[in-house]
Amino acid sequence: MNSFFSVCRAKYDPAHNQDLDPCPAHALLGGALYLFISLDIPSIGALKHYRPATTSIIYDAEKQPLTHVSRENRILVPLSAMPEFLPQAFMAAEDSRFYQHSGVDAWSIIRALIHNIRSGERGQGGSTITQQVARALLLTPEKTYTRKIKEAILAYRIDTALSKEEILHIYLNQIYLGSGAYGVEAAAQIYFDKRVQDLNLAEAALLAGLPQAPSRYSPFRNFKLAKNRQLYVLNRMAEEGYITPFY
Questions:
Q1: How many domains does the chain have?
Q2: Picking from 18-27, 127-136, 149-158, 179-188, which range would have the lowest pLDDT averaged per residue?
Q3: Residue in 228, 236, 193 with CA at minimum distance from that of residue 210
């Protein structure tokens, strides 16, 4: 903050410049805009007691699954029950600096933009995992600059209020992964007919490739694209040091 006002003073020397110093006015305008937008931002209180809609399983007399009843096909599972490489796969694909940033990562946005321009497709997203949590749970799906600002403010607040592990737990249980699956447990059962704790590395990488475009990268709809996306995630995991590079 001191450096900001020192820059403002340097720009305005009464002996040589009779114009009004614009810096305080800009700071005031920015503060007013932040306050105005903040007033319309939902509370993050509900995230501290995360209780999403889950799937109810109805059993027959022999205790065999008979049918499922749900608004969203989701089976809540703790982070501790997931193999370590599963959250690593999602972080490598979606937010490699998850443990370094404070909810918003400007460098990731720039890197994703450059990568996507060079590749000609949206291989990387600019939103952090925390921003995706804010968007999925607390904001409307409208695509406006105001919503993006709200998303960034919310992401910072979430990062301040919750631990990184709590944010990952919410994200991995909330994220839509296509074919009617919400969260990694439901996705593991739909795509691989197994519990999330039993997934292998290749299966985890395939799931981690889905959030950017669940329908486009679904192995049920386009197996080749799904495998290409899976390979991208595995390469990212190797680049981040989560797994040994393979050639």
A1: 1
A2: 18-27
A3: 228
The SS3 of residue 163 is: coil
Which CATH number goes with the domain that contains 99?
1.10.3810.10
Asked if residue 81 belongs to a domain, the reply is yes
Output the CA–CA distances (angstroms, integers) from residue 3 to 17, 25, 74, 151, in the order listed: 21, 16, 49, 27
Half-sphere exposure of 37 (CA within 13 A, CB side): 18
- Whether residue 192 is contained in a domain is answered as yes
With a cut of 50, say whether residue 76 has pLDDT above it: yes
pLDDT (mean) for 33-47? 63
Q: How many CB atoms lie within 10 A of CB 220?
A: 11
Cα separation of 95 and 100, whole Å?
10
Spatial separation of the C-alpha atoms in residues 111 and 126, rounded to whole Å: 8
Q: How far apart are CA 72 and CA 185, in angstroms?
A: 13
Strand partners, 73: 181
Q: Read off the pLDDT of residues 136-170 as tens digits, 9 standing for 90 and up.
A: 887 777 777 788 888 889 999 999 999 999 999 99
Predicted confidence (pLDDT) per residue in 206-220, tens digit: 999 999 999 999 999
Measured distance CA(239)–CA(237) in Å, rounded: 5
Domain extent, residue 177, equals 56-240
pTM for the model: 0.75
Helix ranges restricted to H, the chain: 2-11, 22-38, 85-94, 106-119, 129-138, 145-161, 164-174, 184-192, 201-208, 223-239
